Amino acid sequence: MKNIIPMLGVATLMMASCQGGTAKKTQTKIDSTIVTNATASPDSIRCYQYIKNRDTATLSLKTADNKVAGTLGYNLYEKDKNAGTIAGIVKGDTIIANYTFQSEGKTSIREVAFLKKGDQLAEGFGDVQEVKGETKFKDLNKLKFDESMTFNKIDCK
After folding, report:
1. Cα(142)–Cα(126) distance, rounded to whole angstroms?
2. Phi, psi dihedrals of residue 31, rounded to the nearest 5°
3. Exposed, middle or buried, 41 (CB in 10 Å: 0-12/13-18/19+)?
4. Torsion sign over Cα 21, 25, 31, 35
5. Exposed (0-12), middle (13-18) or buried (19+): which is 130, by Cβ within 10 Å?
6. Separation CA 34–CA 11 (nearest Å)
7. How many Cβ atoms sit within 10 Å of the Cβ of residue 132?
8. Chain segment 3-58, per-residue pLDDT in tens
9. CA angle 31, 32, 37 (to 5 degrees)
C-alpha cells in the first residue's frame, strides 16, 4: 500500500506532462499532497499544550511501534518550573513513561501517564511511592484521568 501512492503520483505526473499548463499546475498540487500524506506517518512528532488560567504545560511526542519519547515541561503558577524528557511505552490508548526533569537544580524522575481521547491527552494521577530514587505510581490500574489536566493537540513549532 505504501508503494502504491508514490507510484500513482508518478504515473499521474507523467500523464499530465503531455497536457497543457493548467493540468501541470493541478498535478503539482496533487503530487505535493501525495508526498505530504505519504510522509505523515504514525512515527511523526505530535505536540500538545495545556493552558488553564496562569498554568501551562507543553508535550511533544514521537511514537515508534509501541515506544514513545519526547519532551515535557510544566510552568505552573507559583510553583517551580520544570522541563525534561519522557520515554516509555504505549499500551492501547494509554502512555506510561518516565519523566526525567530538572527542577531547582536537581534531576528527578517521575512516572507519568496520559490517556488519549481523540486529539487530546488527559494526564493521569494517583497514589505514588518512591522506588530506587524515582517517583512511581503505586497501582497503574487505579489512575484517575479526570481531565483536570488535559493537553490539546497543537501544531509543532
Report:
1. 7
2. -60, -40
3. exposed
4. positive
5. exposed
6. 12
7. 6
8. 434 433 433 333 344 444 444 443 443 343 333 333 334 458 999 999 999 999 99
9. 100
At position 99, the amino acid (one-letter code) is: Y
pTM: 0.71
The answer to whether the Cα torsion of 46, 61, 151, 156 is positive or negative is negative
Distances (CA, A) of 41 to 59, 107, 148: 19, 33, 30
Phi, psi of 34 (to 5 degrees): -65, -45
Residue type, 93: D
